[in-house]
Every structure is written in structure tokens, then in C-alpha cells.
Amino acid sequence: MKLTNIAVVLGGFTCLLLGLSGGLGLLLALPLSDLFFSAIGADLWGQWSVGFAIASTFVLVPIFFLEIGIYWVRNGWRMGGTQGSYPTGNIWSWIGRILLAIVLTVSSLLILGVLAILAFEFTVLGVVLSQDPASLIRPFTIMAFILAMYACIRIILWIFWRAAGKSASRGYSLGLAKYHLVDGGVEIDLNYFMQIGKRGPSRFTIRFDEIQEVRGLTYAETLTYMNYIVGPNLELVAREVREVYQWRTGKIARPTAHYSTAKNPFGQKVLLRGPEVFYLISFHTDPADLLEAFRRAQQPYSANSADASPEGI
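and the corresponding C-alpha cells:
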């Protein structure tokens, strides 16, 4: 597993621990509400009702962290290597690696801190169980009931969210880029008219002999690749803005860099990178035939390029 994958998994694991710590802290705090309402003379039904209301409200925070953690741990674990053959000699890629080191360090320190908090909470839980286990009957019952309800609701929400997500993705994808395979390359339609409603060119062609790498990326891989491998490349940002403007106004035949529209969770992400071009694009459809066409086009040159050192944007 590469460092980029480890950074994503560590971030997700940190959220998981925060969610667990928050849930355990809430469990330990519920007896305090019982003591308070017993002191003011509230009846048993009132104590149960208030305890359930407090738990239902504050349990959303640890559940949020748990869900975020599960998402990023799963995606980080499944991610392919995001290193690719991107050159590492420029200042921006070095900054990206420094940011990666910072993320790894901060995540490790956070994990140690949360583990210390969890150790303290389990110690307190052990003391309470040894001295007054009856005081935790109501909190345990309330939390178990809430978590059982959430487990049932989560299944329903997952089904609804998946259906809604597919519907939203289909609607949003109408404005995503499209492509058409041509002899020796691919024609890309960035679909700008759908995106910004302004007239001007939206199509350009890339020859396969101009690019060294074509591969699909997931949304998590896209964010990781741009943040830590490419880095905060201000030159690339300025180049995209400048050349897209020049292309849209008819001053150049095409931009040599375009990636900003790929930083969304919709569509199929494809990286097309060469010595003079850098494209990371969200496509409307499955790009399997594009990836296969590039693989076939590269076969005659694979023997010569195997020993070549990576170069490019």
C-alpha cells in the first residue's frame, strides 16, 4: 500500500475512533442526566424520555464521524496506486509530498490522542461497572435501542440514497464531458454549452502518440492524485485558466491542460497525460473502450518505452 493510500486510510480511521470515542463518552454522560433529574424529582418515565432525547440528539455526531470514517477507510483500502508516472522533480510535486507528510503526521498524532481518550473512557467505564453497574442499565438500553433503530434506518437510507444518487448522477452527467474515438486518438467534447451556457468551441482531439498514460480513477483517487502527487501546482492552474480562455476565444486550437471539472463526485474520471498535455476529465459514460484503444495503440511501443524514464507535465 502506497503512502497516499495510507494517508486516506489513516484519516478515515481517525474519524472512526472519534465516532467511537464520542459514542462511549455519551454513554458515560447519560447517568449524569439521571442524577440531575432524580435530584429535581422527575419520575421514571421522565428520566427515560429525557435520556432518550439527549442520546438521540447527540448520537448524531459520533454517527457522522463513523460514517465518514467508514467511507474513507473503504475507499483508501480499495484505491489503486495513485503514483502513476507523474514526474516528481518540480517544486509543486515536492509541496504535495510535504502536505502528504503533514497529513500522515497529524493523522498519527490524532489517532494517538483519541486512543488515549478511549483508554480513559474505558477506565471510567470499568470503575462505574465495578462500583455501580445498575447506573448503566438505562444508558446501555437507550444506546442499544438507538443503534438498532439507526441500523434499520441506515439500510432504508442506503437504498434511498443509492437510488437518489444514481438519479442525480444521471442528471448532472448531462453536463459532463463526452468522447469519441477517432483514428489514432480521441475527440473530447467538454460540453461547455451545457455547463456555462456560452457559445464557443468545446471539442478538441488528442492523438494517442501525444500521451504516455491513460487510466481511470475513482473520485477518492482523483482527489489524492491532485492533492499529493501533482500538488498545489499554481503553474498548472494558471495554464488551464489561460489556455481554456484562449481556446474558447479562438486564439489556440486546444488547451494543453484541463482538470478542474474533474473535482466532483460525478462521472467517470480519466487521466490523460503526456509530455506536453495534462487532462483529468469526468466523462459521461464508461471509458472502457477509450482505455482499451489506448492500450492497443501503445502495444507496438511497449518494448521501447519500458526502460524510458517518466517525463511530462
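(Above: one complete record from the training split.) The chain has two domains: 3-167, 178-305.
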